[in-house]
Amino acid sequence: MSRSSGFGYRPRPTPLHAARAGATAGYCAALGLVATLFDHPLILVATLAAVCLAGVAAGAGRELRRAVRLGLPLALLVVLVNPLVSQQGETLLVRGYTVLGRPLDITLEALAYGGVAALRVLALVLTGALFTAVVDPDELLRLLRRVSFRSALTAALAARLVPVLLRDAARMSDAARCRPRAPRRGAVARAAVRGALDRSVDLAAALEVGGFATAARPRRRRRAWSRHDRSVAATAIALAGGGLAARLGGVGAFAPYPGFDAALGPAEWVLAGAVIALSVAPFAAPRARLGVARA
Amino acid sequence: MPEPIARARGFAYRYPESRRPALHDISFALAPGSFTVVAGESASGKSTLLRALTGLVPHFHGGEARGALVVGGLDVREHGPAELSATCGAVFQDPESQVVMGRVRAQIELALENRGHGPVAVARGVEETALALGIAHLLDRSTDTLSGGELQRVALAAALAHRPALLVLDEPTSQLDPVAGDELIWLLRRLNEEWGTAVVLAEHRLERCLAAADRVLALVAGTIACDAPPRGFLAWSAGAAPVLETQAARLFSLAGLAPPPVSVKEARGALAAARLEVEAVRPEAVEDQPAPRPFQRRRRPPAALELRGAWLELPDGPAILRGVDLRVAPGERVALMGRNGAGKSTLLRLARGLTEPTRGEVERAGEVALLLQSPGDYLIHEHVEDEAGPDALRSAGLLGRERSDPRDLSGGERQRLALEVVLAGEPVAAVCLDEPTRGMDRGRKRDLAARLAALAEHGAAVIVATHDTEFAAAACARVVLMGEGTIVADGPAATVLAGGWHFSTEVARVLDGAALTPEGGARALARELVA
Fold first, then answer.
1. What are the φ and ψ backbone dihedral angles of B15, each rounded to 5 degrees?
2. How far apart, in whole angstroms, are the C-alpha atoms of residue A68 and residue A43?
3. Is the ipTM of this structure higher than 0.90?
4. CA separation (Å) from A74 to A34, A70, A143, B426?
5. Residue B341 falls within a domain, yes or no?
6. Do B194 and B206 lie in a common domain?
7. Contact criterion met (CB < 8 Å) for B82 and A218
8. Does B105 touch chain A (CB under 8 A)?
9. Can you give the residue range of the structural domain that contains B2?
10. pTM of the full predicted structure?
């Protein structure tokens, strides 16, 4: 049976996987940047759609579905919490009590802004899932090792250990079910943490004998830029540059309070369309359909 | 004479917070290109000695080291693992804890980049190592999709990529099935012969590796009790440490034959030379056994456990079990054998109810206890006394260890405690154990077989999924052989384990299936001598 946890990078014949890790990481970072720059609901919906389209085109639909299942409860929490902590807005839905000297009223605008924040959370969670699914962690590690060797290796270990520890936890859960009296979940969780620490000690020993302590910074590898590298990197630059320019130019203006005010002119529609179009651009180039090998 | 690759003179080591030394008065010299097996019972100091050769002892584990141990010209008391790693590569038991990168290629590259190799040397080193170890087809695979055997080969490749002069391996086959384990030992032998890499291998299943070895260091209570070529070691172990004898050597010593054979081939040759040829069991004998007949169940006494037409089909994958019919009576001891992926573990999970069959039925006469492969997973409390009651601790032989942390117990102690944990409720109808003898020495296997016999005497059906033919022959009366999710053979151990080639004990291979155990084989040879 497969030992895969369902998350993580899998080589696939798509332009995002074929491009170098730096370009693909930049592409994901650009999508995340757009989701961070704008509060405007239309732009956030467009970004969410762009991430989903890119994920499906890159064969990572399953990973994104799992991320949605993980991200939705968090998004829902944001929707519920925002009206409780923000009493701004002119449309009162529920008049609450005064708690610690503060009125606990719930306004339509606070609820709507909670929804907008939830959209952003979901967009960022899905962008993270896309990043995990399409960026080769080993290649990214090699890039980062030139900057900070130990931090990069620590990050790689953390990424590698997540599925290992998930399997350990699943085994311990099975073992707990085999006991005549099921133990408390807390006890199993504590044992899983102790097991993780034991495993990390073993791993540290293996790294020691592998010469990690005296490891030198790896030398740069020169690799010609492939068409996938170029198209994905250009898309990343266009997304990030276009998003920044639009933000500085005042496109996507949005004020949640006191009344929900979101500009919805041609500029916003163009920006939303551009985000979606750019996100699928690396897949749309005619020759890209032939690109099955790592260039 | 060339300078030894490793030399110890009066080396001793004590772990921190331990009063007794783990190693004492250790002296030896290892020649470059030699193949040395380190033998010994559990907790005899094998792992500590290997960790000392890598520099983990004392630098990683702390503690106090005395005497001298020099590896590649560096004294391990003054030079740490990173410095020693240029000379000494290491592979440990659990492959999961040695592979840190996402893909196989990156794992081997990391080993070379750590030592400052440039891109061209790294690329060449990866290709050559992968080809030498037969893992070129795995280079672009994700490490979390590899089997245990493949992962251990990757760990070996990473340890060998920079061509160290010495390679130490601490029970590298303990987590592997026998086929993968045998392949790894053959690979080591080839590397030793063709690359001239000196190998130091700690291993419980000595019959696997003695034929490849030049020399055996036998450790008893932290000191070297025997330092001899394999034949000399076997002659020593017959008198001083029978638990370390191989099955073929035990057969010879019980039959009064000498010298002890190092391999099956040598044993067969010696018997042929002495004109001792016992009657072979025909392979047809296995095929002649009647197939299980589930429709007879009305006339039989109630079963402790019965699977009727049990299927397990994965939603997005193949069928793991394909209509399995298996009936186990109370008090019966059954070994479930077959290669990895044959469906043994899944069958046990169905028996316990951890997984439900997608078709068919599982009928249990009562509770079914299941001990999965890692006994440590059952031990979740901070003290032994919190895991099981006093009676259970007495059965496990752990009285006096109540306040110990379960993680500080030895592998055998953990196994005994975990078995008592799953048996702690009401009396069970069946006890299932999944690969209980992995990494266990022969003494502990004997203890486990005795415990299972006691459970069977009290009426519990015992079902053991195992690759260990010697254990199956000693502990079980019936063997069920699985393949591709079905039962392919089912009969008395004496028949199923005698007629095969892989699923056969070492004694059965020496005597063409005339006996399974050294004791039975010695009796057969004695009859032959009288005749």
1. -70, 150
2. 19
3. no
4. 20, 7, 32, 44
5. yes
6. yes
7. no
8. yes
9. 1-87+165-245
10. 0.81
